[in-house]
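tl;dr need the bound structure. longer version: we got a ligand (zinc ion) that a collaborator sent over and nobodys looked at where it sits. i said id run it. heres the input, straight from their email, havent touched it
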Amino acid sequence: MRGYITIPKSVPCRNCKYCGSRPIVALSGKDGYVVKCPVNSNHYQTPAGLIDIDDWNAYNIPNTELEPERDQLVACYDSKLNYTFFLPV
Ligand SMILES: [Zn+2]
């Protein structure tokens, strides 16, 4: 028997903000359940108790510094690896 439960895709939950993994629900001793990253126990996990996906989601808000809103920018670089950014026309 596995010691964890995968969360159904129908449940809206964010991926781990450190590694992008979809979280799992694991039994935490006799204290209840935790929502945690399946890859690394050092990544966030919710306090033991009821399955608290809201708490997981509140913590794993994507870091806006890592994902700047520059989707519209195109990056080019020349043979000397000088980058140029411009907006497509
Ligand atoms: Zn993770």
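gonna send this back to them w/ a short note. The radius of gyration is 19 Å.
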